[in-house]
TrEMBL record:
Keyword ATP-binding assigned: yes
Span of the signal peptide: none
One GO CC term, this protein: ATP-binding cassette (ABC) transporter complex, substrate-binding subunit-containing
Record-level Gene Ontology MF annotations: ABC-type transporter activity; ATP binding; ATP hydrolysis activity
Organism of this sequence: Actinomadura physcomitrii
Keywords on record: ATP-binding, Nucleotide-binding, Transport
Alphabetical list of Pfam families matching this protein: ABC_tran, OB_MalK, TOBE
Domain ABC transporter: 4-235
InterPro entries listed in its UniProt record: AAA+_ATPase (IPR003593), ABC_transporter-like_ATP-bd (IPR003439), ABC_transporter-like_CS (IPR017871), ABC_transpr_MalK/UgpC-like (IPR047641), Mo/tungstate-bd_C_term_dom (IPR008995), NA-bd_OB-fold (IPR012340), OB_MalK-like (IPR040582), P-loop_NTPase (IPR027417)
PANTHER family: GLUCOSE IMPORT ATP-BINDING PROTEIN GLCV (PTHR43875:SF4), MALTODEXTRIN IMPORT ATP-BINDING PROTEIN MSMX (PTHR43875)
Protein name according to UniProt: ATP-binding cassette domain-containing protein
Length: 350
């Protein structure tokens, strides 16, 4: 049975913003699931509606098979960690962590023992008496996680849990979060607008736009085979090359290159206008003419550390190629970029 089943969920805010639009989603038991998408696409609204902090306009939310759409947050058995951690500033670390148990009216001894255990587990030993204001961002995040954990929720909801950390700490906290989630095997949904974070952490990702899911899949699926132009242009730290093309027999001609039509695109009619997508990572750069390569002149070379992003001007279209360290050309050079077999994607809706 799915841990979370969302059916036809719609949320229209007063004022008419349709933040969720008849959205369907199943999250499996024990899964680490990411909601990814641009600002305003409805990620936080979805999380808050699952938590019961927003009321659904229509549709249902079921947890472990039980319909909770009309239940208040306290009766849903979910733990939520907010972006700003929402710690109580006047309480000590241990009292913050123990708070959910106080609400559940557990004995003082039990509260203290469980909070101390959670604090140790999250590497907060020795900090129990401090106030949140006396902690680093990473430590505050761990207190928020510990507080959510002590209540042993069956579902964990995290809203941009790493966004307040600096780049180095973020990487560390990411690894920590992944290990924690696997150890506890608690179904976890987290919201992020950082695709590197989603790709690194999640078992599966839902890419959202305008209150709908545009693609649902593993990080590899979403990265390698974006289902549509929206996902193709959204995913990838160096954006995918998207070039206008035309089907000619069993080939596609785009930016002067003639590429074999992928098997799954055989049904496209000759003369059809399409968009040809290929990631900069999946192009091989060379300084000699090659059949089926994009030919152009190097306009920009950006060093990425370990590799370089080369921009070729191909018939007026910029084509980006990732080139290994030491092999980068100079601006003004002639260059050829050959797509690797099976790495060219075609889209109709462009
Ligand atoms: P971000 O990444 O910027 O946090 P998001 O994907 O989490 O964005 P939401 O916060 O869920 O997006 O917002 C979805 C849409 O609903 C946006 O257009 C937003 O302006 C609108 N919205 C959010 N909260 C409210 C509210 N309380 N009242 C009215 N409109 C709202």
């Amino acid at each position: 049975m799915a841990a979370i089943t969302i059916s036809e969920l719609t949320k229209v805010y007063p004022g008419g913003v349709r933040a969720l639009d008849a959205l369907d989603l199943d999250v499996a038991d024990g899964e680490f699931f990411a909601l990814l998408g641009p600002s305003g696409c409805g990620k936080t609204t979805l999380l808050r509606t699952v938590a019961g902090l927003e009321a659904a306009t229509s549709g249902t939310v079921a947890l472990g098979g039980a319909d909770v759409t009309r239940l208040p947050p306290g009766r849903r058995d979910v733990g939520m960690v907010f972006q700003d951690y929402a710690l109580f500033p006047h309480m000590s670390v241990l009292d913050n962590i123990a708070y959910p148990l106080k609400i559940k009216k557990r004995s003082k001894a039990d509260r203290h023992a469980r909070a101390a255990e959670a604090a140790d587990y999250l590497g907060l030993e020795g900090l129990g008496k401090r106030r949140p204001g006396e902690l680093s961002g990473g430590q505050q995040q761990r207190v928020a996680l510990a507080r959510a954990l002590v209540a042993e929720p069956r579902i964990f909801l995290l809203d941009e849990p790493l966004s307040n950390l600096d780049a180095r700490l973020r990487l560390e906290a990411r690894t920590f979060l992944k290990r924690l989630q696997k150890e506890l095997a608690v179904t976890t949904v987290f919201v992020t607008h950082d695709q590197a974070e989603a790709l690194a952490l999640a078992d599966r990702i839902a890419v959202m736009d305008k209150g709908r899911i545009r693609q649902l899949g593993t990080p590899t699926e979403v990265f390698r085979r974006p289902a549509n132009l929206f996902v193709a242009s959204f995913i990838g730290s160096t954006p995918m090359n998207l070039l206008p093309g035309r089907v000619e027999g069993d080939h596609v001609v785009a930016a002067g290159a003639s590429l074999p039509l992928p098997d799954e695109a055989r049904a496209l009619a000759a003369g059809e206008e399409i968009v040809c997508g290929v990631r900069p990572e999946y192009l091989d750069y060379g300084d000699r003419p090659v059949d089926g390569a994009f030919a152009g002149r190097v306009s920009v070379v950006e060093h990425l550390g370990g590799s370089a992003l080369v921009t070729l001007d191909v018939e007026g279209e910029p084509v980006h190629v990732v080139v290994g360290e030491g092999r980068e050309p100079a601006p003004g050079d002639e260059g050829w970029a050959l797509p690797r077999p099976g790495r060219v994607l075609l889209y109709r809706d462009g």
